[in-house]
Amino acid sequence: MASRHVPYTDISDMGRAAQERAANQQLIEEGRIIKHKELEKMRREINNGSTSRLSSQRSSADLASSISSRNLDARELRAQLLQLEEKVKGAMLSNVQLDNDKQLLKYEVDLLKDKLEDLTDAYASLNKIFLENKRELAYQKMQIVELTHRLDYARHQIEARDQLIVEHGLVLIGGTNVDDNPTSNMEELTATNAHMSSTNKGKFTSNDSNLVMMNGLSNNNNNNNNHSKSNSLIHQNGDKSSNHLPEMVLITKSTAELLNTLSETTLDKQIQQLFSMRSELDARVEELESQLREERKRFEAPTTRYDSKNRTNIANAEDIKHELQQSRNQAQEYKLKFHESSQKISALESDVSFMIRRLLLRPSLNF
Question: Where is the secretion signal located (predicted)?
């Protein structure tokens, strides 16, 4: 059998080799036939010589008839021999052709076996890849289902947050920058979430309208138990992850309007600005108080001197009264300014303390 994985260029070489072998075998067979003919001829001659010696005593008539019959038999035998030679040559050629066909078919069978083995290996490899992809697809489907559930949960939390914002009329600020117009932000948020007020009404209750919601999501697992226990609600998602949403704070509308008047954009800078404003106002109040004390001392001294002299200088009485009235008016004006500044400072202190308290209690939302 031919070796496996034989190149296609060896087919012609094998055919030529087979033809050469067939030609050599044909020559050998022809030589054998010729040799066999020579031996038969010698045998006939010997037989003819012996018969001629044995029949020399016969009559000439019998000899003539026997010679003519032998000549006829020899011609018939030669004709039959020629026919047999032609048949043998044809059979030899057929055998050679069949042998060549047999070799070619064996070679093709070996090639087909090699192809079958290659296809079997490829099928096994593809089947293995198919099983791996099938397992990966099943895993991806499980991941999709899990992420879909988490997405639905997050949507419910956002709806709950928006419902709380709509119910309490609050403003959500935060992210990278503070909203430039918190009032319009609240109105837009109220308009986009108004359809949830009828479906989710009554689900969330609170005793205080000052709510702080950090990182934009809420967790209502224990809200009904905690609403009546605190003045503010802090909502967060319980899942832990490394991805954090931008910082957001939920405040009242009045606080948002106050923050909108500030020049800073971020919440931290606004708080720092409020503290600096408070320090400036404190310094201004102290300055006004010191000025008020100085004015009091300055206008009390002439009055004392005027009383001690028993009004000796009556000509300057009207001027002194006029100066005293101006001093009283200025003192009253300073008192009003001081009172207004104190009110502003107290309001700012309450807002700042409220925001600081909420920021200190701020949890980090993890998805």
Answer: none
What is the tens place of the pLDDT at every residue in 237-261?
Answer: 344 343 444 456 666 777 777 777 7
- Cβ(127)–Cβ(185) below 8 Å: no
According to DSSP, the β-strands at 248-251 and 171-174 are antiparallel
Please report, for residues 108, 155, 208, the alpha-carbon distance to residue 54 in angstroms, rounded to integers and kept in the order given. 66, 133, 157
Contact (CB, 8 A) for 245 and 171? no
Angle at 82 between CA 76 and CA 83, to 5 degrees: 90
Q: Please report, to the nearest 10 degrees, the dihedral formed by the alpha carbons of residues 206, 210, 214, 220 taken in order.
A: 0
Q: What confidence tens digit (pLDDT) does each residue in 186-229 have? A: 444 444 444 444 434 433 333 333 333 333 333 333 343 443 33
pTM score, two decimals?
0.34
The predicted-structure confidence for 74-128, as pLDDT tens digits, reads as follows 777 777 788 888 888 888 888 888 888 888 898 999 999 999 999 999 999 999 9
Structure tokens at 143: 């991941």
Q: Which residues fall within 8 angstroms of residue 365, CB to CB, at 6 or more apart? A: 214, 215, 216, 217, 236, 237, 244, 245
> Do 179 and 173 form a contact (C-beta atoms < 8 A)?
yes
Amino acid (one-letter) located at 317: A
Please give the single-letter amino acid code of residue 1: M
Smallest CA-to-CA distance from 10 within 99, 112, 104, 95 is with 104
pLDDT tens figures, 61-72: 555 555 656 666
Q: Which of 110, 219, 212, 106 is nearest to 156 (CA)?
A: 219
How many helices (H) and strands (E) the chain has is answered by: 8, 2
Statement: residue 316 has pLDDT above 70: no
- In three-state form (DSSP H/G/I as H, E/B as E, the rest C), the secondary structure along 309-352 is CCCCCHHHHHHHHHHHHHHHHHHHHHHHHHHHHHHHHHHHHHHH
CA distances from 198 to 113, 154, 160, 223, 268 (A): 76, 20, 13, 20, 37
